[in-house]
Each structure stands twice: as C-alpha cells, then as structure tokens.
Design a protein that fits this description.
Blueprint lengths: L2 E3 L5 E3 L3 E2 L5 H14 L3 E3 L7 H10 L8 E6 L9 H9 L6 E4 L6 H13 L6 E4 L3 H10 L6 E5 L7 H9 L3 E5 L7 H4 L2 H10 L3 H11 L3 E2 L6 H6 L10 H8 L12 H9 L9
Parallel strand pairs: 3-4, 4-5, 5-6, 6-7, 7-8, 8-9, 9-10
Antiparallel strand pairs: 1-2
C-alpha cells in the first residue's frame, strides 16, 4: 500500500473501494472483499444510502477500527442540520470519521463546511474536504475557512486530467481524489493502444495500468466494483512502476473529456433532494 500525507498530517491510503451506485447488500459484500484483500480505504456518502452496510462490513472484518480509513460525504439537504454529522456517525456505527466531505457545491454549503469544522474540532472527524467543487468555489471556502480542506474529490482520468485544477490544488496543499478513475467504463479509454502495450509489458490489465498512472500522478483512487475479482485486481498495483516516458505517454491522452456535467439546474435539484437515509437497511 502507498499513502499520501494530508495537510494536517493525517495519512491516507492511495487506493480505496468506492460504493457509488451499490445497494446496501452489494456495498457490504464489496467492502468485505476489499478489506480481506488489503484495502484500508472505504468511500461512501449519505446520498449512496449504504452507510449502514459499510459500517457492518467494517465491524464484521477482523480489523481494528484504526486500521480502516473511512470516508463519507454530507449531502446538501443536511448542510444546515446541526445533528447531520452525529446521524452520519450513527449510521456508520463508528465514533469518528477519517475524512468527511461536502458532497456538492449546492444549497448552503458554507453552513455545511462550518458543520464539518465543528465536528473536526470535537474530534468526530479527522480531516475534512470537498467534492465536485471548481477552483472558484474552492477559493470561496479558502477565504472563509478556519480549517483548510485536505482533499478535493472530483472526476479525473486519462481523458480528463484537470491540469489547471491540480496545479491550483498543489499550490494550496490539497490532495486530489479521483472518482471515475477508469473513465466511467468507456471502452475507448480502456482500450487505448498505450494501455494494451503496457499491459503486455508488465503483465497487468489495462485498468491496472490506468490506476497505476493515477497513483504515480498523486491521485488517490476509489474505483467501485461489486465483482470480487475486479476488486482484487484494482488493488494489485504496488509491484510495478511506470517509467517517466510511459507516464508522459499516458498524460498525452488528455482530451478534456468529462462524463459528469454539473449545471445550475442540477445543483438546485441536489439542494432540495433528500436521500432516504432513514430507510436504509
């Protein structure tokens, strides 16, 4: 396993299991497999409605809680609820969260950030950050925050490398975390000739080559899967290293092509949408 040290000194694994779009049963099974394969980072969110299942998987593993880096995200409709963090802790069945993020720049996200800062000061959260924020929105947080965000979780993959954003984050000592690290399963990306060539050289899959590129680029990755073999393969990344030339060859694939487009209309929908967190199993 490789780690990154966040701007408050907390060590975070570079590879984790994502639970986006997984049902509670799927999330629990995926996390159980991941932890057994050596993963120590789990990513979930209020909006995924599977936090209870993630908590069960953690409890049922033989691991001490301190060995697992647990990450979740507050949803906009909860930003102004004083007990939102406590309710999140309750669902997860834990007394602290390693990393808590503002999920979307929607609704009163300043209030949400203040809520996270309070939880951080109280020791309920070890690090805080943002998800899906652009540079201007991050600057807004930096202008008002007492505790600097440690992570930005956003879409990053070889077709959408966010070079300007990464330069900005590097200057601010904020680590980037990639969701859709494999390009949302785009076959055109996964089957790029450079990945097939490197796959043959290193005896790895094309997906493993992409994930290794992320790690060497400084991107924390959270590929999601409910397939045990894929989960295992997505963690088998630490016995080879791409050369500088190979890294550059992959970097040259950038097309500024993203798969998720945020719009004001979408953010307005997020602000009023209430995930059925109380109904989750």
């Amino acid at each position: 396993m490789e780690y990154v040290t966040l701007n408050n000194g907390v060590k975070m694994p570079m590879v984790g299991i994502g639970t986006f779009m997984l049902s509670p049963d799927e999330a629990q099974n995926s996390c159980t497999h991941a932890l057994s394969y050596g993963y120590r980072l789990i990513d979930t969110a209020n909006a995924y409605v599977n936090e209870k299942a993630v908590g069960r998987a953690m409890k049922e593993s033989s691991l001490d809680r301190k060995e697992i880096f647990l990450e979740t995200k507050l949803w906009p409709s909860f930003y102004e609820q004083e007990d939102a963090v406590d309710k999140t802790l309750e669902r997860l069945g834990t007394d602290y969260i390693d990393l808590l993020l503002i999920h979307q720049p929607a609704g009163n996200y300043i209030a949400g950030y203040r809520l996270m800062e309070k939880a951080y000061k109280e020791g309920k959260v070890k690090a805080i950050g943002l998800s899906n924020f652009n540079i201007e929105q991050i600057k807004e947080i930096l202008d008002i925050c007492e505790i600097k965000p440690a992570i930005l979780q956003t879409e990053v993959h070889p077709y959408f490398q966010e070079k300007e954003l990464k330069d900005f984050l590097n200057q601010e000592d904020i680590v980037i975390q990639a969701w859709y690290p494999l390009g949302h399963g785009d076959k055109a990306l996964l089957e790029e000739p450079v990945f097939s060539k490197l796959s043959e050289k290193y005896g790895k899959s094309n997906a493993q080559i992409i994930l290794r590129w992320h790690i060497q680029s400084g991107n924390v990755v959270i590929p999601g899967s409910k397939n045990p073999e894929h989960i295992k393969d997505n963690f088998d990344l630490f016995d080879f290293t791409l050369t500088d030339e190979e890294m550059e060859e992959i970097t040259s694939l950038n097309k500024d092509k993203r798969y998720y487009i945020s719009t004001p209309e979408l953010l307005n929908q997020y602000a009023v949408m209430v995930p059925p967190v109380d109904e989750q199993k």
